[in-house]
Amino acid sequence: MPSESDAADREGLTDLQRRVMFEAGTERPFHNEYWDCKTTGEYLCRNCGAPLFESADKFDSGTGWPSFTRPAAEGAVTEKVDVGHGMIRTEVVCAKCRVHLGHVFPDGPGPTGQRYCMNSASLKLKPAADE
Questions:
Q1: Residue of 38, 78, 75 lying closest to 58 (CA atoms)
Q2: Is 65 within 8 Å of 102 (Cβ atoms)?
Q3: Which of 30, 96, 100, 119 is the residue whose CA sits 20 to 30 A from 16?
Q4: 42 C-beta neighbours (distance < 10 Å), count
Q5: Count of alpha carbons within 13 Å of 84, Cβ hemisphere only?
Q6: 97 among known catalytic residues
Q7: Is the pTM of this model over 0.70?
Q8: Which of 129, 126, 131, 128 minimizes the C-alpha distance to 43?
Q9: pLDDT tens digits along 68-99
């Protein structure tokens, strides 16, 4: 996990955003910025601005967090084993700056069967030009 001093843009982050991105925290389900967002566009890393996910790959997982079937491009995110909280999960971090984004689970819809369950606190939506 990157230290807060490694952040590209620490100013303007809320306590929740800092806790999620730099301490692998989790925001509350159904009480976050993008869980039910229907705006088309590109989801970027809130820390470094790297493109991470596309709204076309977003789906309603019923979990209360924004969920995607795949990253925007190969290599956009990095996955690693997370054995915290008495569970074995796959953590997802930004490949560019390594901040915590969320977790991926093998219970998503086609075509990938994956559910990239992300924290809104780690994302920033760049709406499509026609929005």
A1: 38
A2: yes
A3: 96
A4: 17
A5: 10
A6: no
A7: yes
A8: 126
A9: 999 999 999 999 988 877 888 999 999 999 99
